[in-house]
What we know:
- The mean pLDDT is 88.
- By secondary structure, the chain is mainly α.
- The longest helix has 25 residues.
- The protein is 83% helix and 0% strand.
Amino acid sequence: MEIDNTRAIALASYTLLGKLIAVMKRDALINDQQIATAVQSARRVLEEDGDPTGVQAGLFLEGLQEGLLGS
């Protein structure tokens, strides 16, 4: 049950973050360069110790960035 909750929280957070950034981009409150910079910074933090979960999270952020920059 804990794994299901963790996945649900991760999915909810990922979805909310994507929607929030999309609205900010639509309203010209954030631009593509700012999104790219934020994703790069977050990936460094997530992946710095080589933990597989952090590396996987960094890859998900990269996917989120690609989706946002394509919109």
